[in-house]
Amino acid sequence: MSRDDYLNIFRETGALLEGHFVLTSGRHSPSYFQCAKVLQHPQYLSMFSQKISDHFESLDIDTVISPAVGGIVIGTDVGRVMGKCTIFAERENGKMTLRRGFTIRPGEKVLVVEDVITTGGSVKEVMNVVDAFGGIVMGVAVIVDRSNETVVLHKDQFSLVSMEVLSYEESKIPKELESIPTTKPGSRSLKK
């Protein structure tokens, strides 16, 4: 499938939003990918998960991990397709950690799966959690790479859609975007 095919799916399902968004990274953007809107459709969830699984099928993966909340649905389904254990990391007191009895054994081979990256901050935090437990990050998969492949998190990094989506530091927001009320659709609350 081409990038345009994927974008059409996002548009048709209402997953590609336009307005003034404050991203999880704190940057401002005129567009936002709400992957939960597309992943609620089983045919797209299955298709995306299969494509990610196919890319990593030659690797000996033990576990799939995702950052909460956005990556949980796609990560769990990728684990299902691969027949692998799936877990997620979540924030506790502002720090990404494993909870709910989840653990990673030393030497465990882990695939990190996320829905969208802009700066890759949440994925980096999850990778640090894997490292802290002695696990080995074998690869990183994302549905949408908003950095147009400028954010490289791992030597084996795969995205279904890679494109540059404009985003701005808060001090550099253009006037036309500044005039639109902001929405914070991400899963992590921002501290001002």
How does this model look, in words?
With 192 residues, this protein is α/β, with parallel strands linked by helices. It has one domain (3-178): Rossmann fold. The chain has helices spanning 3-12, 35-39, 42-56, 72-82, 121-132, 175-178; strands spanning 16-22, 28-33, 63-67, 85-92, 95-97, 109-117, 136-145, 157-162. It has a six-stranded mixed sheet with strand order 5-4-3-6-7-8, with helices on both faces. The longest helix has 15 residues, at 42-56. It is globular, with a radius of gyration of 16 Å.
Topology (elements, then pairings):
Blueprint (H helix, E strand, L loop, with lengths): L2 H10 L3 E7 L5 E6 L1 H5 L2 H15 L6 E5 L4 H11 L2 E8 L2 E3 L11 E9 L3 H12 L3 E10 L11 E6 L12 H4 L14
Helix pairs in contact: 3-4
Short structural description:
The protein is α/β, with parallel strands linked by helices.
The helix/strand class is alpha/beta
Mean of residue pLDDT values: 92
Cα distance spanning the termini: 40 Å
Global morphology:
globular
CATH architectural designation = 3-Layer(aba) Sandwich
According to CATH, the fold-level topology is Rossmann fold
User: What integer value in Å does the Rg equal?
Assistant: 16 Å
Q: Total number of helical segments?
A: 6
In total, how many domains does the architecture comprise? 1
The quaternary organization reads as single chain
Largest sheet: 6 strands, mixed
Regions with little confidence, pLDDT below 50 for 5+ residues: none
Instruction: Give the SSE order as H and E letters.
Output: HEEHHEHEEEHEEH
Binned strand content: 25-35%
